[in-house]
Write a structure and sequence with these properties.
By secondary structure, the protein is mainly α. The chain has 5 helices and 4 strands; from the N terminus they run ββββααααα. It has one domain. The protein has a two-stranded antiparallel sheet. Strands 3-4 form a two-stranded antiparallel sheet. A hairpin with a 2-residue loop joins strand 3 and strand 4. The longest helix is centred in the middle third of the chain and has 25 residues. The two termini are 33 Å apart. The model has no long low-confidence stretch (mean pLDDT 77).
C-alpha cells in the first residue's frame, strides 16, 4: 500500500523486496486502500460468522442456564465482534449484529424492539453503540 506514492516499484529493505499491495492483515484486522466505511462493512461481514457460531451454541445448549449463555456471550462473542471497533469511527454496521445476538441470548423474537432488549446493557457499551 502507499499513500501519496509516486512510484509503485518494489523497494529493497535488507535482503527483502517490499512490493505494493491492495490490503494486508494487521493485528487481526484487514487494512486496505478502500474507504473506511467500505472496510468497516467488510470487517463486520467477516465477523458475522461469530453471530452464527453463537446461534449454534445456543441451539446446542438450549437447556443451559442463562448465566452460562451470558458468560459465553460476554467472553467470546462480544470481544470477537467489537475487537478494534474504536478505530472504525462509525459503529452503525455493528449495531444490527450486536442487537441480533442480544435477542438470541434473551430468547425473544427478531421483531422485538431493540430498546427493550438493551435495557440492562452496561452504560459504557450503550453509549458506544447508540
Amino acid at each position: 500500500m502507499g499513500l501519496n506514492a509516486d512510484s509503485t516499484d518494489p523497494f529493497k529493505l535488507g535482503d527483502d523486496y517490499i512490493t505494493r499491495t491492495q490490503s494486508y492483515c494487521y493485528l487481526g484486522g484487514n487494512v486496505s486502500i478502500k474507504t473506511i466505511s467500505h472496510q468497516v462493512k467488510e470487517e463486520v461481514e467477516h465477523r458475522r460468522k461469530h453471530e452464527r457460531k453463537f446461534g449454534c451454541f445456543l441451539s446446542a445448549n438450549n437447556s443451559a442456564p442463562f448465566y452460562v449463555k451470558r458468560k459465553v456471550w460476554d467472553s467470546s462473542l462480544q470481544s470477537a465482534m467489537l475487537y478494534a471497533c474504536e478505530t472504525w469511527g462509525n459503529l452503525k454496521p455493528v449495531k444490527q449484529t450486536y442487537t441480533c445476538t442480544v435477542k438470541q441470548l434473551v430468547g425473544v423474537r427478531r421483531q422485538t424492539p431493540n430498546r427493550i432488549c438493551l435495557v440492562d446493557l452496561p452504560s459504557h457499551l450503550y453509549s458506544l453503540l447508540f
